[in-house]
Design brief:
This protein is mainly alpha-helical. It has four helices and two strands, in the order H-E-H-H-H-E. A two-stranded parallel ribbon has the order 1-2.
Length: 99
């Protein structure tokens, strides 16, 4: 009986841990002009290879001007953009620039 409770408790702990990370990554905005491979990979259906292409694209052509510009990167379809458009930003709104 004791072993049963340990197994159930461990399973619940794992589910809660993975749920927390999945939930946290869903709401996080990703600045495609400054994001790392890891941050870009948190977007739906974007892996490390496409993340690397995004970084290479912004280094070769300059920063993205609007979120939709990410579709210019090979591997980013309209469907993938639509899945992520609420999370993609091109500037950091949390830092206010002084004139």
């Amino acid at each position: 009986m004791k072993r049963f409770f340990i197994v159930v408790f461990t399973a619940l702990a794992l589910v809660c841990t993975f749920s927390f990370f999945a939930y946290a990554s869903v709401d996080t905005k990703v600045n495609i002009n400054t994001a790392s491979i890891k941050e870009l990979s948190s977007l739906h259906r974007i892996g490390e290879k496409v993340s690397q292409r995004i970084i290479e694209y912004r280094h070769s052509t300059g920063p993205f001007e609007k979120p939709e510009d990410i579709k210019k990167v090979k591997g980013i379809s309209d469907k993938i953009f639509e899945m992520n458009k609420e999370r993609i930003v091109v500037k950091d709104n949390s830092v206010e620039k002084k004139s």
